[in-house]
Design brief:
Elements (H helix, E strand, L loop, with lengths): L1 H23 L8 E3 L2 E3 L2 E3 L1 E5 L2 E6 L2 H14 L4
Antiparallel strand pairs: 1-4, 2-3, 4-5
């Protein structure tokens, strides 16, 4: 009986490990972060949008930067 219980438990652990690794393989969308002042397209801006250390947007006013952020999220480039 103990052998059967150990075998069933081992099979369940193996199945859960397999399912967890399958979910980890799903590509995720990187997250957008807001950064402070810096250079974007050769100009100094007050607000920047950064994804994985790449600057994807920049503007001097919040309305423009929030609009750019919404567009990037709509296009699926970041979350």
């Amino acid at each position: 009986m103990r052998i059967l219980y150990a075998l069933i438990t081992t099979m369940m652990i193996a199945m859960l490990t397999h399912l967890a690794s399958a979910q980890a393989a799903i590509p995720s969308v990187p997250s957008c972060t807001m950064a402070s002042e810096g250079i974007y397209n050769g100009a100094w801006v007050k607000h920047r949008i950064v994804v994985n250390e790449d600057v994807l947007g920049g503007a001097n006013d919040m309305d423009s930067i929030l609009s750019q952020l919404e567009n990037l999220r709509t296009q699926g480039l970041c979350r």
